[in-house]
Structures are given as C-alpha cells and as structure tokens.
Amino acid sequence: MHQEIAVGLDGSPESRSAAHWAAREAQLREVPVRLLHVWVLPPMTAQQTAREGEQALAGERLLQDVESELREQYPDVLVLTRLVPAESPADLLPAAREAALLVVGSRGLGAVRGHLLGSVALHAAAHAEAPVVLVREFGRTAAPQDAAAPSGAAVLSGAVVAGVSLRAGHENVLEFAFAAAERHSAPLLALHADGGAPADRDALAAALLPWREQHPGVTVVERCVPDGPAHALAANSDRARLVVVGRGGHRSGPAPRLGRVAHAAVQHATCPVAVVPAT
Question: Are 114 and 12 within one domain?
C-alpha cells in the first residue's frame, strides 16, 4: 500500500497552497509528503544549454524554499523533494504514480470569473490512478463546525461533502469521503442529486449503510435534492472543508475523462475538491 502524498509544485500561489494542504493531510495520516517539480527539458541546442542550467537551478530553489516552509510549519511531517526532468508538464503523473494521493493547485472559476482550470491540473484529475485533490490559492480553512450557516443555507459548516452516485463502481467516493471526515473529525454531507423521491432516499440510505457501520463516529447527513448534481455540489461547497466527487466514464483516447459533474465541481467549487477514480 502506497504511503506518500505527492504535490505538483510549479511555483504558482495555487501550488504552494496545495503543498500546505498536503502537509496538513500528511500530518493527519502520519505519512511523508513529496514535492515534485516537473522541469521541462528544452530542445538540446548549444544556445539553450545555459538556459537549461538556469531552469534546473530555479526548480531546485523552488523545492528548497517550499520544503523549508513546510518543515518549519509541520515539523512532524517528513518532507521529500524531487526534480523531475520531463518532456511535458503532464509527466507529473508518472512521477507521482507511487503516491496514495496527488495534490495540485487549481484556479478553476471560483470567485474570479474567467480563470480556467490549468491544463496540467485537469489532466491529472482526469487521468491519475490515485485520487487527486485540487486546491485553490491560499486554501481556505473551513469555518468551525459549530458556526451558524447563512439563513436558508443547506450547508454543514466544515463538512466533507460527497457527491453520491448510486451507480455501481462509485463506492470509492464514499470510502474516501468517510475516511476524510473521520480524520478531520468533520461531519459528512452525503448529497445525491437528480432525486427527491422516496425510492431515491431509500437507495441513498442503503448505499451509505456499510460505510456508516465502518465509521460509526462520523456524523452523516443524507440529502436528496432536485437540483442537478453539479449545481448542488457547488452550492454546498462554500462552507465545506472538502468536496469529494467520482471521476466519470472511461473513454479511450487523449480526451479528459473527468465527466460532467466532476469537471463542474473542480471549476466552480470554492473549497478543495477530491476527484476519486471509479473502481
């Protein structure tokens, strides 16, 4: 079993926030965190040799700077670094293949309309073998669990919000969400959209029952809502600690395989989003 959290570090504010989120998660899991900086090799020409050396040095400095930050703030966490020579930033995935979790920075749409999710983060979320967590700049700490929600808000403050699909193969989402809620001593909001009928509520309760039994200390709130799943997840992300969604279909070819709901969540949710591959 892999016992390491990997972070894709590119020097952006979002990736630094991802590194801090990963260190906090590693502290809870009692595992190392590994900082990965993908150094894209330029074509080998005489004119570019000096520039190549400068890029490698800048990558090493970045790793050392963030490593120092994390060691100071999270002294109990083992911080490892690796500079990855590669042909493309997408080579982050092979470098992180041995990790149990990959964390990357994400711009998404968030509160600043027009900022699109970076292609590397999108590629990672769509193709990684392990779960991927996408973190905004200056990753917001969830509000205290006993804080009052805005009037009429269908939100549990500080909760882990799981988008629950009742289709076979998405059990990994519940496994990840319950474990995260337990680690963070947080409530779990199990959200099933496209529903609301008694049959949907019964099916949701049945899907959650095995995980409730495995994690009896987790407070679970079940909700079936008539909204589309993407809208429901975004609406419940504002005061959440983490949104957990499953990755959609397994189409062949180079196109991202996130699926509509996961793609909308990573672009619109205002808290970190975990994308969990289906079984």
Answer: yes
